[in-house]
Amino acid sequence: MNEKLRWGLLSTAKINAALFKPLAKSPRNTLFAVGSRSEESALSYAAEHDIPRAHGSYEALLADPEVDVIYNSLPNHLHAEWTIKALEAGKHVLCEKPFALSLAEVDAMIDAAQRSDKVLAEAFMYRTHPQTLKVKEIIESGKLGNILTVKGGFTFNFNRPGNYRLDPAFGGGALWDVGCYPISYARTMLGLEPFKVFGWQVIGESGIDEFFSAQMLFPGGIHTQFDCGFRGPFRTFIEIVGQDATLHIPAPFHPGKKTRIFISRGGEPETIDIDGQNPYRGEIEDMADAILDGKAPHISLTDSRANVATILALYQSARTGRVARIKKG
Questions:
Q1: Does residue 52 lie within any of the structural domains?
Q2: For 142-200, where are the alpha helices, taking DSSP H only?
Q3: Dihedral of the CA atoms 172, 173, 174, 175 (nearest 10)?
Q4: Any bridge partners for residue 94, and if so which?
Q5: Do 275 and 141 belong to one domain?
Q6: Is position 286 within any domain?
Q7: pTM across the whole model
Q8: Which residues form the domain of 106?
Q9: Is residue 34 part of a domain?
Q10: Which DSSP string corresponds to 185-233?
Q11: Positive or negative CA dihedral for 210, 128, 16, 107?
Q12: Tens-place pLDDT, residues 99-146
């Protein structure tokens, strides 16, 4: 294998830019190639961002023998198809969230990873950040007492005609795009899986959910609730309420290099300052740990499957107006 893992970008999506600095600063990873739907687009993108190699098709990128890792930043409905193709081409894959749009797709991706013996992981960048690890440490320490509820939100105004987020055929919708974060956060912090969910949605003109409000019930009687949407001002937060104290995380899903979280026991909050990092640095180093050192990825494929299962159950509930149960396995 190369001295550094050589990364190839599958598409010229805007989110790619988040990886430029982390890859440039990493001792074990480097940005090497980009694949686009045309040679002109690939060459232009590569020249603009100083990427050594450009491929005029996705297939050509996957066929490049010098590419080790594929970053799949394609629209949601293409995650499964091109992740499987990349794995079958002998590449490791970091696939953007949401992992896939059905459990059948998730299972096919997991099967492809097992058959190819390559690393496959979901790109929930907040999961490897020091702030997230600190929150998990606080909960496990018992400082909050037994957890009663987790509340959260992720909204912003979004109205860009033609964008895949507004197209139901492309896996658009607020729950897929931003609701996946508070679901993942609650599941991660509780270390449990919800077994009952209930959801409400507001459908926009294009047919996607522009606003979604959800409740989830976890073992032990722990209730969680969150809202997400493309309507309203930008806001993100998580509040974890225990019997003894409440933990407030103002920036849970995109923490930066300096962050603060707050513990309240009814009086003045205790401020905890955290030295963080570029949130995308952790996920690329996590891939290097898995590929080069044989460590398990921070986000397991079982974890990713459970997040998709929860999203699907919430959509089912919103469509039927009834509580949906999540089956194991």
A1: yes
A2: 174, 180-190
A3: -100
A4: 71, 121
A5: yes
A6: no
A7: 0.96
A8: 5-123
A9: yes
A10: HHHHHHT---SEEEEEEEE-TTSSEEEEEEEEEEGGGEEEEEEEESSSS
A11: negative
A12: 999 999 999 999 999 999 999 999 999 999 999 999 999 999 999 999
